[in-house]
Amino acid sequence: SQSLDVGRLIAGLQRGTVPGADSSVSFLCEKFSLLVERLQRAEGAEQESECRHSLLKVELQSEEQEASRERVELEAAAAREHSETVSMEDAVAEAAQEEALSAEHLSLARNEAEVLQHRSQQLSEQSLSERRRLAETNSRLRHFQLSRTGGQEDMRRLQGELETLTAQYAAAATELRGCRERAGRDETRLAKLRAEAIGEEEARDHASEAGTVRREELDEALSGLALLKERLAEVQVGLQQCEEELRRRADQKQVLWTELQRRESRLAGASRELDGLQCTERSLQRTLADTADVRGRLGAQEAEARQALGSQEALEAALVEAEHRLAERGRQLEDTERQQGALRCEAARAEEEQAELEALVQRLQHDEVASTGIRHNLERELHLLVAESDKIRRELSGRMANRSEAQQRLQLVTPALAEAKRHVRELEEGLEARGADTAKEQQLCERLDREAGLCQEKMRALRDENVRLAEQCVELEAALGPAAASAASASQRGTARSAGAGPRHSSRGPMGAGLRLSGAAPARSMGGASPKVGSGLRGSCILSSSSGACLRSPASGAETSARRALSAPRTPCGGTRGAWGGETPPLQDPGWGSASARQLAPMPTGSPRELGLGSAPGRQPTFLPLACPEDGGTGGATVDSGACEVPREPVAAAAIPQSLEYLRNWIESEEGRLVTRPACP
Questions:
Q1: Residue 583: helix, strand or coil by DSSP?
Q2: For the CA atoms of the chain, what is the radius of gyration?
Q3: Is-annotated flag, keyword Coiled coil (predicted)?
Q4: Which of 438, 441, 448, 101 lies closest to 284, judged by CA?
Q5: pLDDT tens-digit profile of 398-428?
Q6: Whole-structure pTM value
């Protein structure tokens, strides 16, 4: 090929005689034609790149439309989930208020039970003291019958004391009837409270069913599941604390109830309260049915969890498919970028060549004689090339603007990917919380079953003890009846003999005996010996009258006498005339000592929670020891509240599926790739 010597060509043209000028011009024309061909090829490649760019642009727009549609759907689902979450929070708040009200009712019932227990304890103590006083009176009567010396005054005094005791017995019987009426009203109130508690449990069951339906709807939208699960976890923790406090209060209530039954089993008037326990047994059966229903709901919830796992796997597959599509589009964009870079290099080379040609044209403009036609042609071609280059520049600037816009859209899609990652994490946390809640409920059900078995055994033992004590009371009543009748007949015979032998005694005999008895009583009480029966009896009467049992208030004596009269209806002196001639009113309550009244009602069986006993949140059940005679019947040593607290059992977190881990890693890598992608030049 020939080389172009520009300087030699210009000098020859100026002189007009240049050998080989024609060949140089032909070489220049060939060079220009080659340049035009290269420009045409570049234009064709640019058109092809424009076609590919338009196709990629259409695909990118379709992907953006799909992403916007999915984003709108996700926003709508999130709005629905938010509204359902708000409604669920309201329902949970209402349930908490109902639980607080039930806890207050249970605390009131517990206070009333404590008051009744304290009252029963007082009445039992008064009954024991009155029985002791009656035994002392019977022994003194027997002594009076054996020795009648100076016994008339003691008889009159004892007759007055017995009349006082009879009046106290009548007052105590009246007060005991009033106490029983109040106890009946309290039982009616407790029945109403139990009915309200059952209604609250039914309402809670309906609320749980509605919550199950809402959970089925929530499984369709994974984005709003995390917030609801967190709320449910908090509510479950609160419910767990409430159940622990309920168990603790149930244990305390059970201890108090057993103590009250033990106290009342010593009296024969506990039949009505035992009849009231049948209602509690029926409520226990209903509670057992509710427990079975709750287990069925737990199985349904496990099925829902498995269904949620299936939908989650489908979502993971869709996300993997979207990842492949994004990777393919990324490769296509990289190919387009490489082609655009090659086109830019060719355009730069074309611009350089165009500059060289312009320089040559400027140099050749001076030679108008030799190359006028060529110059005009070259100028026209150069104008066309400039227009084409401007057009190419404008197109390149438009493509750069489109590319920057595409990058901005990709940056807008990045938050949606982050939101999807957050939703996946929240879903994992919700699944872990659901597993922990299921395990906790199973443990609670097992523990309630064990407590129900223990309570049933205790109830059976108490029922057997009550039957045994009732039989002992009947035997004691039967044993006391003949002894009292024989004592009354002996006192009547002694009175008749003393009345017949009175004229034969001297006038100072009774007085002397009375003086000797009154003077010898303090001496023998100080010395500790009693050789004479009369003085010994008088001293014992003085000591018994000055003892703590004889110095009780009339009200307490009346209560004790009434309770004893009701517990022992066959009193020897009831409705008969005693040895001192005083009339004793009958104290037996008709119908109280019958066989139907002594029949014992069956004890309730079941766990304290199923019996409707209350508790408060944040405490474990406290098992107090039963009362024993050594510690005064108060239930033994005081139980420290700190010792009753049991640490919470750790909740084992559920294992995260490998598919969720893979989805999380892919989202993180996609974010890193979008952040670290180099900007376009």
A1: strand
A2: 54
A3: yes
A4: 448
A5: 888 887 887 787 788 778 767 877 877 887 7
A6: 0.20
